[in-house]
Amino acid sequence: MEDRRKAANMRDSLRYRASGRLSFVGLVGLVGLIIVLALGAYFVFGVRSPEQAMQEFMTALAERDIERLMETSVLDRPSKPLREQWEYCVNVAAKGMPFAWTIGEARQMSDDRAYVEVFIVEFAVGGAKESDEPFRIPLVRESGRWKVDLTGVPRDFFPGLPR
Question: Is pLDDT above 90 for 51?
Fold first, then answer.
């Protein structure tokens, strides 16, 4: 009889602990899910600063990544299809051109307009040559993401940029 009572108490105790553990596990899972969804929304909707957008654009330019260049830049009324112009830029005009860059000051003029200063270092046979003055690169916010506005990029910033 006493063994039955002990067994019943043990079962009740295990059920209690299990239900408590499940509640804790459920709570931790829910918090984890909320965090994952929030991070996903952050990365999907591109809540970035103009500096981060410029860094992403410059990395795509250095890696000759046409897909990312298309995603990180905008050009109203291009003279030729934008993809075709990017292909010319990275595969012909700037083919094999090594360069580095430094992101300088950034200023946001309005909710959807900003500029970022960029210093370019070109590497050539005679050595490295850094730009004397920074290039002011305009950015616009399009669909919630900052993108380089190619219409305002100086011609001498990079060879063969889309126009």
Answer: yes
